[in-house]
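Appendix B. Chain record.
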Amino acid sequence: MCIQSLNAEEKFLSLKKSKVNVRYGPSFDSEIKYIYKKINLPVKQIDQKENFRRIVDLKNNSGWIHVSQVKKSNSIIILEDKILFKKASNFSKPIARLEKGRLLVIKKCENNWCNITTENYSGWVKNENVWGAIN
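Structure tokens predicted for this chain:
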């Protein structure tokens, strides 16, 4: 489901809170670089030091986040417009059209399909051309 292969230290995580500080270094003494304001946003862990994780997002922004602010990945961002289906089949009833860049929270994945929820819908999407993964 992830577009690139990950090495042993790399894995996808999701933001646990609706406000998360990203720092220049792996310490609370380090200055805040920027603030995420999106719960469940997928980020890729590229390094770790004690209780901090160095992450990078879809737009290639990077920094350090305390481990208490992230959780196992449960979300993806779609990289192209997608159709949301009622069931995990191309022949199923289409429910909605989802626009590129949309954050989707994953309930579960089977084969090439993921059961997702958005603010307004619940259904199945193909897990191609997405950024993020389930750990």
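Further analysis of this model is presented in Appendix C.
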